[in-house]
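Each lists sequence, tokenised fold; shown next:
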Amino acid sequence: MPERVIQYYNYFGKVKSLGMYFSGSIVFIMMLYTCADVVFRNIQGYSPLYAYEISQSYFMPLMVFPGLAFAFSVGIMPKIELLLEK
């Protein structure tokens, strides 16, 4: 393989691992935010944090999209050829 292609694969590996760490940290932050929302709801009777809207609009895309590089590189996602055969 040419040297430049090997550099691209190394760069993709770094981006992939960085995306997985980022997605994992977002999952952890979303868990803490949802727990804080439940605590506020049980103590005060209402929630000033709007955990559902924040999770839906911000946490879910930040959790899914960086992990797609890993899913595509490992082969978890179905390929077009598999869908065309069915």
User: Anything to note?
Assistant: The CA atoms of residues 69 and 75 lie 10 Å apart. The first helix runs from residue 3 to 44.
